[in-house]
Amino acid sequence: MKKVAIVGCGGSGKSYVARELSRILDAPVTHLDAAFYDDEWNELPMEKFAALQRELVGQPKWVIDGNYNSTMQIRLEACDTVVLMDVSTVAALFGIFSRQIRHGAGHKGNGVHNRIHWGVIKYVAAYRRTMRPRVMAKIEEFASGRADVVLLSNRRQTRRWLRKVAAEHS
C-alpha cells in the first residue's frame, strides 16, 4: 500500500483516515479541499486542479482524500488502494456537525475545511442516493481488479482496519 485514494461523503472520516494512513505509511497526505479552495473559499480552476492531481499521483507514495467526481479518475487509475468511506447518512451528518463543533468554521490546515451551509447539508443528506452510485461506478471502471478496494461502513470498523494496517506496517 503506497498510493491510496480515499473517497466518500462529507463527514464520513476521509481526512481522519488520510492523516492516520499518512502517519502509518510514512507517505505525504493531500486533502483535496485544501488544494481546491483558498482561504477565502475561492475555487482553483478545474484544469489547474486536474493538473495538480496528475502531478501528485506521479509521486512514489501518497495518500489523497476527497471526492471531486470530475477528477476522481486521475486518482483511481494511479492508486494501488481505494478506501471508500461508506458510512450511513446519519453518521455523515453527525460527522459534519460534530466536526464543526470540535474545530469551528474555516480552514484548519489538517484537512479540516468547515463551511456548513444548506447546500452542504443537502449534499450529505442525498449522497448515498445520488453520489454513491456514481462513485461506485467509477471505482468499478477505473480501479476494480487493479487496486485493492476497502469499504469502511462505520467508525468502529474504520479504527479496527487502521489498527490492522498499522500492525502490518510496523
Summarize, please.
This protein is an alpha/beta fold.
Task: Give an overview in words.
- Helix 1 runs parallel beside helix 7, helix 4 (72-78) packs parallel to helix 6 and helix 5 crosses helix 6.
- The protein starts with a strand and ends with a helix.
- It is built from seven helices and seven strands.
- Strands 2-3-1-4-7 form a five-stranded parallel beta sheet, with helices on both faces. The protein has a two-stranded antiparallel sheet with strand order 5-6.
- Helices cover 53% and strands 16% of the residues.
- A hairpin with a 5-residue loop joins strand 5 and strand 6.
- The protein is α/β, with parallel strands linked by helices.
- The mean pLDDT is 88.
- It has helices spanning 14-25, 32-36, 46-57, 72-78, 89-103, 118-142, 155-168, and strands at 3-8, 29-31, 62-65, 81-85, 106-107, 113-114, 148-152.
The gross shape turns out to be globular
Distance between the termini: 13 Å
Helix content: 40-55%
Return the average pLDDT rounded to an integer: 88
- What is the string of helix and strand elements? EHEHHEHEHEEHEH
Based on DSSP secondary structure assignment, what is the total number of beta strands? 7
Major β-sheet annotation: 5 strands, parallel
